[in-house]
Amino acid sequence: DIADQNRLAVGGYSYGGFLTNWLITQTTRFKAALSGAGQMEHVSSWGTVYMPTFIASLLGGFPWEVADKYRQESPMYHLSRVRTPTHIVTGDKDEQAKPSQSFMLERALYYLEIPVQLLIFPNEGHGLSKNPWSGKIKVREELKWLHKYTNQSL
Fold first, then answer.
1. How would you class 113 by CB atoms within 10 Å of its CB: exposed for 0-12, middle for 13-18, buried for 19 or more?
2. CA-CA distance, 99 to 60, in Å (whole number)?
3. pTM of whole model > 0.85?
4. Which residues form the Peptidase S9 prolyl oligopeptidase catalytic domain (predicted)?
């Protein structure tokens, strides 16, 4: 009785964005999702991030050593289960979670006909800290998304 099950939302940024991307492939209980700078596909992440050893240690080896694990634990390969309207944000200069990961999520949800919105912040890195308006716009748009899909007042 703590949470209204008809208004549940999930969201996170960076690793929290990855967890959000994973959760929406595992359950339909959320009415809305907010994904910020989250990974979608581990092999491409491993190949493009500045800390590939982090992904390798997280998954127990390199892509060629534990290929099945990279596939099993990548949200990309479970997207057919998603039903959650998802709002995505990324900085176009993000070196920690490449914008291409967010592009993949947006494209897949579009083709799956799941409500989706991708907000790309120009000249922003992972922390969206270059322009003080970026964080304000991010929160404003996320609140609008939550209001639209969970009927919560602003």
1. exposed
2. 25
3. yes
4. 2-152
Residue 107 in tokens:
């494209």
At 50, the pLDDT band (50, 70, 90 cuts) reads confident
Is residue 30 a contact partner of residue 10, using CB atoms and an 8 Å limit? yes
33 burial (CB, 10 Å; 0-12 / 13-18 / 19+) is: buried
CATH number of the domain at 9-151, out of 3.30.870.10, 3.40.50.1820, 3.40.640.10, 2.60.120.560? 3.40.50.1820
3-state secondary structure of 28: coil
Q: Give CA–CA dist 24/83, Å, rounded.
A: 7
- Listed residue (90, 142, 88, 77) closest to 114, CA to CA: 88
Count Cβ atoms below 10 Å from residue 100 Cβ, excluding itself.
Answer: 15
Per-residue pLDDT reduced to its tens digit, 61-120: 999 999 999 999 999 999 999 999 999 999 999 999 999 999 999 999 999 999 999 999
